[in-house]
Every structure is written in structure tokens, then in C-alpha cells.
Design brief:
Blueprint (H helix, E strand, L loop, with lengths): L3 H23 L14 H14 L1 H4 L8 H15 L6 H14 L26 H4 L17 H4 L6 H12 L6 H19 L7 H15 L4 H15 L3 H8 L9 H10 L12 H11 L4 H16 L6 H6 L3 H16 L3
Helix pairs in contact: 1-14, 1-15, 1-17, 2-14, 4-5, 4-17, 8-9, 9-10, 9-15, 10-11, 11-13, 13-14, 13-15, 14-15
The structure holds ligand AR6 and magnesium ion.
Length: 344
């Protein structure tokens, strides 16, 4: 039996690699998909996954590129590693800015690009002020906080308050709207709960209940809490993907995408009709992409939660060969684990 330390290492790696793979494999579906006569998006994604395995030699060297989700998550992880697990707003903001200016083509959100250059400017006195000025002072509620937050969730279970605080504060660098940063808090906590869950006794209802407790503490408007309560019902009734999208959304905004990622993880613990894939990571990413819309980000967030639960062994080998950024994610996962074991 694997030791507790090696299980944890596997789950840290699974989470960051799961996030990268969801981003890379979801990205080709983001702008809509031409479906064959009688085909569904789900059946197309299943074929894509099956062929990814069969054509591994042909695919050799071919990389599915990552997008802004991974670009920003790498900066979050790099900053936490550099600051030995502590949150340093200036350091993280500068990394977001540099990453964007180096590779602006990664598919960043339409509004966040207006403030990313300023986040590296030492003359900006209040580093949170560029984000606060967005959307006439209301701030962004895009899902850009949730999409990058997995590294924050990778710490011990006793540090949940710190997960919440770092997720909120680091998201405010770009998303000052409550819905934007609370969505990131929810996603970071989902990663943390999955990381420490016992797969043998795991209970999806209890998982949702734990998230409800967090959201009850942090949100003032109840938007996420109401949707979590709906999700609890949905887990009992197994709705169609269209109904899931109707309830939980598939858009680039936080409150209409992050819960779809959480639901994808919870739903795919069990087999899903229409997805004849035995591997649970494959099933989860396939399901998340089948929700259509913001496929890369929903699959990336679902992959981060699922990877923290199942560990790196459940990530298909083929993904490791074809997804850009996997090696860096493995390295960052190991470094974050070292920080945690060093007493974060
Ligand atoms: N009012 C109206 N629309 C909004 C608001 C608001 N307060 N906030 C956000 N939006 P952005 P992100 C809409 O630019 O969150 C990439 O595809 C608005 O249409 O802050 O980092 C990634 O892969 C705005 O352009 O960036 C993610 O999927 C959009 O939400 C996503 O974009 C995105 O918000 C992440 O984007
Ligand atoms: Mg996206």
C-alpha cells in the first residue's frame, strides 16, 4: 500500500496536471464544434479521447497548447513557491503581467487584458486598484480567478482559512467583484476537500455540504449557496447535460461555470451513460467538455478537483505526452508539496 506521503505527492501532481490537461484538451472545443449528422458533442469528445490513445505514436511531438488558464495558474504556483507558501500581492501581480506580456496570444479574457500590463508597474501605488476600476467600478466576475486557483488549494486541511483568504485576495488582483472572487474561493476549497477526501468513504453529498458551509461564511448574496443546494438535488436525479447547463451554466463568468466544474467531478465518480470510458479522469474531462461553452476552463477546473482526488496514476499516459505544460505542472506540484511538508 502506498504511504501517506506518496499518496499526497500523487494527488498534488494529479491536481496541477489535471488542470493543465483539461485546459489543453478542452481548448479545441471552445469555439464550437461541427457535429456529424446525428452526433452529439459528448459522442465527439468520446471519440477524440479514444483516438488520442490509439494514435499516440502519430501524435508524438504534437502538443495541445495550453491557454490563459494554465498561463495564470503557473504564475500563482510560481509566486507561492518563490514566497515559500506565503501570498505576496506584488510578486503575484508582477508574474501575471510578465506572463501576459511575454505571451499575449494565450486567449485571455476580453477585459482583464486591459489591466494586466499595469499589474507589473511599480508606479501603481495600490496594486488592487486597476481591477477595482473595471466595469464602472463593479469589478469583473469572469471565471479567471477560479481557472487559476488550484495551487492555492494544495495545502493541508488545517489551513482552510488560509486557502479562503489567499484565494480571495489573489483573485482580487484581477477580479474585484464578489462573484468573481467567491467563485475562486469555492474552486480552491473544492480542490482542498478533494485532496484530503478518502476515496473509499467519499460521499458527494458531504462534499457539497462542506462547500455550502464555506460559502455560507463568505458570501453576502447567496448566489453560490443557492446553486450548491440545487446541485445536491441534481446529483440525485441525474439531469441531461442541457439541464446541467441550464442550472449551472457554461459561460466565461464565475457563477455560471465553476459549479459546472464541481458537478462534473462529482457526477463522473459514477459511470455516465454515453461515456464508455472506464478511467475516471477521462470521464470527468469528457463530461466537462460536453457541457460546451467555455470548455477549456470548465474542463481545467474539473480536472484540478478530480486530479486532487484520484492522483496522477489516474491521468492517462497519452495526456502526458500531448499536453503542453505538463512537465512544469509536475515540478510545481512537487515544490508546493515540499512547502506543505515543511510546515506551511
Ligand atoms: N459585467 C458584465 N460582464 C462581465 C463582468 C461584469 N461585471 N465581469 C466579467 N464579465 P475578464 P477572465 C464578462 O475579462 O475572467 C478566457 O476565455 C465579460 O464579457 O475579467 O480572466 C479564459 O479561458 C468579460 O470579457 O477575464 C476564461 O474562460 C468576461 O466576462 C475566461 O476568458 C471575462 O472576464 C476568463 O476570463
Ligand atoms: Mg476559457
Amino acid at each position: 500500500m502506498a504511504s501517506a506521503a506518496s499518496r499526497l505527492k500523487s494527488r498534488f501532481r494529479g491536481s496541477l496536471v489535471g488542470a493543465v490537461a483539461g485546459d489543453c484538451l478542452g481548448a479545441p472545443y471552445e469555439c464550437g464544434t461541427q457535429l456529424p449528422e446525428g452526433g452529439t458533442l459528448m459522442s465527439e469528445v468520446v471519440k477524440f479521447m479514444q483516438n488520442l490513445g490509439k494514435n499516440i505514436d502519430k501524435e508524438k511531438g504534437r502538443k495541445f497548447a495550453f491557454t490563459d488558464d494554465t498561463a495564470m495558474a503557473r504564475s500563482v504556483a510560481a509566486s507561492l513557491i518563490h514566497c515559500k507558501g506565503k501570498y505576496d500581492a506584488r510578486d503575484m501581480a508582477r508574474r501575471f503581467s510578465e506572463e501576459y506580456l511575454n505571451e499575449p496570444f494565450r486567449g485571455y479574457g476580453g477585459n482583464v487584458i486591459e489591466i494586466l500590463p499595469a499589474l507589473g508597474d511599480p508606479c501603481v501605488k495600490d496594486i488592487y486598484s486597476p481591477a477595482e476600476s473595471q466595469f464602472n467600478g463593479k469589478g469583473s466576475f469572469g471565471n479567471g480567478g477560479g481557472m487559476r486557483i488550484a495551487p492555492v488549494g494544495l495545502c493541508s486541511a488545517e489551513n482552510l482559512d488560509r486557502v479562503i483568504e489567499i484565494a480571495r485576495e489573489s483573485t482580487k488582483l484581477t477580479h474585484s467583484n464578489e462573484l468573481g472572487y467567491n467563485g475562486a474561493v469555492l474552486q480552491a476549497c473544492a480542490v482542498n476537500f478533494a485532496l484530503h477526501a478518502d476515496p473509499v468513504t467519499f460521499n458527494p453529498d458531504g462534499f457539497v455540504e462542506s462547500l455550502l458551509k464555506v460559502m455560507g461564511r463568505v458570501e453576502s448574496d447567496g448566489v453560490y449557496s443557492d446553486k450548491l443546494k440545487r446541485m445536491r438535488e441534481m446529483l440525485k436525479t441525474d439531469p441531461t447535460t442541457d439541464d446541467v447547463v441550464e442550472e449551472l451554466g457554461n459561460e466565461v463568468i464565475a457563477h455560471l461555470s465553476i459549479l459546472s466544474a464541481v458537478y462534473s467531478f462529482l457526477r463522473c465518480i459514477q459511470p455516465v451513460q454515453g461515456i464508455p470510458l472506464e478511467n475516471a479522469m477521462e470521464r470527468t474531462i469528457t463530461y466537462a467538455i460536453s457541457l460546451d461553452g467555455d470548455t477549456d476552463t470548465i474542463a481545467s477546473m474539473a480536472g484540478a478537483i478530480a486530479g486532487a482526488f484520484y492522483g496522477i496514476e489516474e491521468v492517462p499516459k497519452e495526456w502526458m505526452g500531448v499536453c503542453e505544460g505538463v512537465d512544469d505542472a509536475m515540478e510545481q506540484a512537487d515544490q508546493l508539496l515540499d512547502i506543505m511538508l515543511g510546515g506551511d
